[in-house]
Design goal:
- The chain has 2 helices and 7 strands.
- By secondary structure, it is α+β, with helices and mostly antiparallel strands.
- A 6-stranded antiparallel beta barrel has the order 2-3-4-7-6-5.
Amino acid sequence: MTTETRKKHGEQRKLTRISIPDHPQIFDAHSNAVVGQLVNLSTEGLMMMSSSAIKPGTLLQCRIPLRCSGEVIEIMVGVESLWCDGADEPGVCWTGFHIIDISPQHHKMISTLIYD
């Protein structure tokens, strides 16, 4: 992510966000197509790395496998893209999403992952 992108989008973050080191794939819940890789996550949003741009305002229903306490858990989230910027390397885009739909159980899983 460019320094300008960090400055522009980093100032809007109010919640604790964790980096996800293994960058699990994010799947479209309807088609099972890979839409990108998870970079970081908060209880209200996420950042994804992908090979193509995702326009702001795009709505997705996603399935994300996360490693938690040695096991893989899968969460389902509805997200809306807020911004998309090119990375420092060609063919890589960063997209910020706001979580707009998540079950209480999956929200609790994300909270546990972040705060425990």
